[in-house]
From TrEMBL, chain A:
<keyword id="KW-0472">Membrane</keyword>
<dbReference type="InterPro" id="IPR003661">
    <property type="entry name" value="HisK_dim/P_dom"/>
</dbReference>
<keyword id="KW-0812">Transmembrane</keyword>
<dbReference type="InterPro" id="IPR004358">
    <property type="entry name" value="Sig_transdc_His_kin-like_C"/>
</dbReference>
<dbReference type="InterPro" id="IPR003660">
    <property type="entry name" value="HAMP_dom"/>
</dbReference>
<dbReference type="InterPro" id="IPR050428">
    <property type="entry name" value="TCS_sensor_his_kinase"/>
</dbReference>
<dbReference type="Pfam" id="PF02518">
    <property type="entry name" value="HATPase_c"/>
</dbReference>
<dbReference type="GO" id="GO:0016301">
    <property type="term" value="F:kinase activity"/>
</dbReference>
<feature type="domain" description="Histidine kinase">
    <location>
        <begin position="241"/>
        <end position="446"/>
    </location>
</feature>
Automatic annotation (TrEMBL), chain B:
<dbReference type="InterPro" id="IPR036388">
    <property type="entry name" value="WH-like_DNA-bd_sf"/>
</dbReference>
<dbReference type="InterPro" id="IPR011006">
    <property type="entry name" value="CheY-like_superfamily"/>
</dbReference>
<dbReference type="InterPro" id="IPR001789">
    <property type="entry name" value="Sig_transdc_resp-reg_receiver"/>
</dbReference>
<feature type="modified residue" description="4-aspartylphosphate">
    <location>
        <position position="52"/>
    </location>
</feature>
<dbReference type="InterPro" id="IPR001867">
    <property type="entry name" value="OmpR/PhoB-type_DNA-bd"/>
</dbReference>
<feature type="DNA-binding region" description="OmpR/PhoB-type">
    <location>
        <begin position="131"/>
        <end position="229"/>
    </location>
</feature>
<keyword id="KW-0902">Two-component regulatory system</keyword>
<keyword id="KW-0804">Transcription</keyword>
<keyword id="KW-0805">Transcription regulation</keyword>
Length: 447, 229
């Protein structure tokens, strides 16, 4: 299951908090409003009932009054209903059946005791208030007031409050989302800085002053970046220093070897063979040191400028005594292409040397917009070997089979690094008709 | 016999290179410090000077500057350092060429020969009557006389700078690539184009009123350089 994100969790907590809070407030305000409204309604109803009771009391004071007429003379709206109990007999205004059943026993008892009272009842499922007022003699006046309107008002109020609570909860969630975005912004800055460092910009640092709350994180991050940069620099300097320190003794070896080599004719066969081995290995040693130094400083960005890739390819071929017509520029190749001339020259040179050494010699060198290809006549590179053939000190089966003594095992690694310095790639594929096809891609963006 | 002065503080390199250069037909004289080198060159000038950059006492850059102040002897730097910064600084100090250790003796000899061969044309030229003048506005180049004049005034250029200027002057208004110039002036079959760039910069300081926007010796981006009026 996908873990729930921090933002979601915080937003949910905000929403829940807002919901609980707004629900409490809504319930409280609903309850107090309900109480106030009912009390108000009750007071009004009781006052009206007393008024009506006074009228009825006066109306029935005489001997043998027409009770129904008296009741009918009352000005009651549609929401009031009056009842009179006189000497155990029930009277109402209309011919409708007397609703005496609605009068609760408790109220009857109170009236019998000569006390006025009011009680809320449910009649046919409708909320009503019944007020009982004892009159002179053995009569009791009851008035039933419908509370349906009040109930409707309260229901509307309840709905409004519920809607408000939901809206507040949604608002809480939105605030949570917004707040976490702001709270997480420093983390976004850290992520961006980490990405930049991964992309190779080791000078990227966070400013702890801009986000005081995450200052420890910023400081730790900067510390890490410092260590990383220092470590990389140490490694690089070590590689450079080692190669550097090897150069002076190599110069002595080279010069001394050349002195002996001049006198090879005077040496006996055995010594001459040994000298041959010595001078060959000095040469290889030189190449190795040069290649190592090249790799050691390869993290520097490519110095791109408009370069005539075709002319460059012709030159590289000529240096290796290959015919210039081996180079073929495909249609649509622009006159110049942004490239680091030194690096591309070396990369292409390495590919051609590779083809000469292990690929039965180059067959064609093709130049296109943003790419260079070298085809060879060798056995090609087997699918499983393609992934790591550009790694350092990796030699293909062709190199191993030859007991190769010339290569440094770094040539293709340098090709890959040079391509990468241009933001491009080095790949190998099958050439249609046999052999390998090495390709360098250099996208055109100027660095 | 061509003579060469080797200024190198590493005893073994000094000894082995001296022997190897002698094998190549040079009369080699080797010293261990820049001070000795400058003194030796004043006393008994060699045809070419090889100098290391990291020397005890006076360093290679200062040594090049002092040698250059005295005359225009071809100077080749032989150094283990190959940072662009070091190479450019050495060339700007006045070196004619730069090779990184370890250099093959054959390669070194070829470079020395190229510098001498090119330089000799200019040196022997004064005996030849002035025949041609190549004019580019207020700039005059006399290849046979080995002379450069700006608004009639002679300009002091080194032999290599002069060869570079002549090469460009021979192709007025034509763009020569850095590689073409390297081949023709320095005799490199392939090499470091920074050598050309720094020499062009040095020449501009001598023949241009405003080196920031040169009038005669202009860069054609991506292609090379050309000389124009």
């Amino acid at each position: 299951m996908k873990p729930i994100g921090l933002r979601t969790r915080v937003s949910a907590a905000f929403a829940l908090g807002a919901l609980i809070l707004s629900t409490c407030i809504s319930l409280m305000s609903y309850e107090s409003t309900r109480r106030t409204l009912f009390a108000e309604r009750e007071r009004t109803a009781v006052r009206a009932a007393y008024f009506d009771a006074a009228v009825v009391n006066a109306g029935i004071a005489g001997a043998d009054p027409n009770v129904s007429d008296v009741l009918r003379s009352l000005d009651t709206g549609s929401d009031r209903y009056v009842l009179l109990n006189r000497d155990g007999r029930w009277y109402s205004r209309s011919a409708e059946p007397a609703a005496d059943a609605a009068v609760p026993q408790a109220l009857r008892d109170m009236s019998a005791a000569g006390e006025a009272g009011a009680q809320r009842i449910l009649r046919d499922g409708r909320p009503e208030l019944i007020v009982g007022i004892p009159l002179a003699g053995s009569a009791t006046f009851y008035e039933i007031i419908s509370l349906a309107e009040l109930e409707r008002t309260l229901r509307t109020l309840g709905l409004v409050l519920a809607a408000a609570a939901i809206m507040v909860a949604a608002g809480g969630a939105a605030v949570g989302w917004y707040v976490t975005r702001h709270a997480l912004r420093p983390l976004a800055a850290v992520a961006a800085a980490a990405r930049e460092i991964a992309a190779g910009d080791l000078t990227t640092r966070l400013n702890p002053a801009t986000e005081p709350d995450v200052a420890p994180l910023s400081a730790a991050f900067n510390d890490m970046a410092d260590q990383l940069a220092a470590r990389l620099q140490r490694d690089r300097r070590f590689a450079a220093d080692v190669s550097h320190e090897l150069r002076s003794p190599l110069q002595t070896l080279e010069a001394a070897a050349s002195v002996i080599d001049k006198r090879r004719a005077r040496l006996d066969d055995r010594t001459a063979t040994a000298v041959g081995l010595l001078t060959a290995e000095v040469g290889r040693f030189q190449s190795l040191v040069n290649d190592l130094l090249e790799l050691a400083r390869n993290d520097q960005p490519a110095q791109c400028e408009p370069t005539d890739l075709t002319e460059l390819a012709v030159r590289v071929c000529r240096q290796r005594n290959l015919p210039a017509d081996m180079v073929e520029a495909v249609d649509g190749t622009p006159e110049t292409w942004p490239a680091d001339r030194r690096r591309i020259e070396q990369a292409l040179g390495n590919l051609i040397d590779n083809a000469i050494r292990y690929g039965g010699g180059p067959v064609a060198v093709r130049v296109g917009p943003g790419w260079l290809e070298v085809d060879d006549a060798g056995p090609g590179v087997a699918e499983p070997d393609r992934a790591n053939i550009f790694d350092r000190f990796v030699r293909g089966p062709a190199a191993n089979a030859r007991g190769d003594g010339d290569g440094t095992g770094l040539g293709l690694a340098i090709v890959a690094e040079h391509a990468a310095a241009h933001g491009g790639t080095a790949t190998v594929a099958d050439r249609p008709g046999g052999g390998a096809r090495f390709r360098i891609e250099i996208p055109g963006a100027f660095s | 016999m061509n003579s060469v002065l080797l200024i190198e503080d590493d005893d073994r390199i000094r000894l082995s290179l001296t022997m190897a250069l002698e094998d190549e037909g040079y009369a080699a004289h080797a010293v261990a410090t820049a001070e000795e080198g400058v003194a030796a060159q004043r006393r008994n000038p060699a045809d070419t000077v090889l100098v290391d950059l990291m020397l005890p006492g006076m360093d290679g850059y200062e040594c090049i500057r002092q040698l250059r102040r005295d005359d225009d002897v071809p100077i080749v730097v032989v150094s283990a350092r190959d940072d662009t910064h070091d190479i450019v600084a050495a060339l700007e100090a006045g070196a004619d060429d730069y090779v990184v250790k370890p250099v093959q003796v054959k390669e070194l000899a070829a470079r020395l020969r190229a510098l001498r061969r090119r330089a000799r044309i200019a040196v022997t030229a004064p005996s030849v009557p002035e025949t041609s003048v190549l004019t580019f506005g207020d700039l005059q180049v006399r290849p046979e006389a080995g002379e450069v004049r700006l608004r009639g005034e002679p300009v002091a250029v080194t032999r290599t700078e002069f060869r570079l200027l002549c090469e460009l002057a021979d192709h007025p208004g034509l763009v020569l690539s850095r590689q073409q110039l390297l081949q023709r002036v320095w005799g490199h079959e392939f090499g470091d184009e920074r050598v050309v760039d720094v020499h062009v910069g040095r020449l501009r300081h001598k023949i241009e009123a405003d080196t920031g926007s040169p009038r005669h010796l202009v860069t054609v981006r991506g292609l090379g350089y050309k000389l124009q009026p």
